[in-house]
């Protein structure tokens, strides 16, 4: 909608003709805009809806504004028609005609009866006690522009929310129903599983949200900051997005339960295998502990725990869940059991290593003793009485039961030192063919 120029002195004929042409163009533009607003889909929906809250309050004011707009437009059209009639009296308008036209076109010549606004909710002079309002054509156009922009803003905002949110809510509700059926098939039900409770809450929230969107769309509208254009803003999807994310979380949980249903038997078999290996390792550790206590003297041997009874009981419970298709309970139990079973196998292996450590030490000492004996033999000292005596003493200690590891280690060291002492003078400065030079010294 346009605005006419400012008022001025008595207009000449050319000024009058130009003003009438502008007013005529404005009249057509205003009429086109009002008819478009009248036919706007959002306005028709607002007229037929049972509104509540902010939307109800603003639509009451907007309806009054639209009614007032048509009253203003009729007054504007009457003034334009009167001006055209004066101009059409004669081809060359008299000074009196021009003065009358100047007052009509630039002065406060348009009167709008106050009865149309006295009971309206639109922002007018209603309530001031006046029975009518007087406008210049310029002021009247400005007033219509204000009311039109405010009315269109409200209609466009409501229509934008109705065009966006109900359809999205319906799609999400359909997805929610599919998820509910899938959840029910795997035993995820309200009161039995947190995801079942979440589905119930999302259902209630979406139902309530849709009802509110239909009755109060402006409660879901975010105006654009700093924008004065009608309909500047966007639908507020915060609550919808929150529920969509919550449903996605539930879907992932259901998918995890479905995965459990598909590979539950294989996972149970793997669990039984891991626990069986842990049990066998602990049995081996207990047996080894008895051997260590019998064969190794003066050694602290850690105790070995019994079989993982609690885990075996939980494994039996998991198998029971699978037989009764209680997948939502089986899923978290399997995850917990898999980690605990691996921890149990690691603990059993560590226990076996700790228990057999003295035997490993004895084996290392035996190997060291035999290695030095072989070295001595390579240098032709196998029949040395002193070395034979030291070797036999160490061997008796290492192959006797129970074996005192500390004393046996001292015996092995004495044999090593004796061998080193005898070998040291025999180390050649340069090795012979096929034989590396031995650079060892006593005590190595």
What does this protein structure show overall?
It is a single chain. With 444 residues, this protein is mostly helical. It contains 13 helices and 6 strands. The chain has helices at 13-39, 41-48, 53-87, 95-106, 115-118, 137-185, 194-215, 238-295, 309-323, 327-355, 357-378, 385-399, 405-423, and strands at 110-113, 132-135, 221-223, 233-235, 296-297, 403-404. The strands form 3 sheets. A two-stranded antiparallel ribbon has the order 1-2. A two-stranded antiparallel sheet has the order 3-4. A two-stranded parallel sheet has the order 5-6. The termini are far apart. Residues 2-6, 115-119, 125-129 and 429-444 have low confidence and may be disordered.
* N-C termini distance: 108 Å
State which percent range the strand residues make up: under 5%
- Tell me the total number of β-strands: 6
Mean pLDDT: 82
Sequence stretches where pLDDT stays below 50 over 5 or more residues: 2-6, 115-119, 125-129, 429-444
Which structural class fits the helix and strand makeup? mainly alpha
Looking at the structure, what is the overall shape? rod-shaped
N-to-C SSE series?
Answer: HHHHEHEHHEEHEHHHHEH
Strand order in the sheet with the most strands? 1-2
Report the radius of gyration as a whole number of Å. Answer: 50 Å
Count the DSSP helices. 13
- Tell me the helix content: over 70%
Largest sheet: 2 strands, antiparallel
Offer a concise description of the structure.
The protein has 13 helices and 6 strands.
What labels describe this entry?
444 residues; mainly alpha; two-stranded antiparallel ribbon; disordered N terminus; disordered C terminus
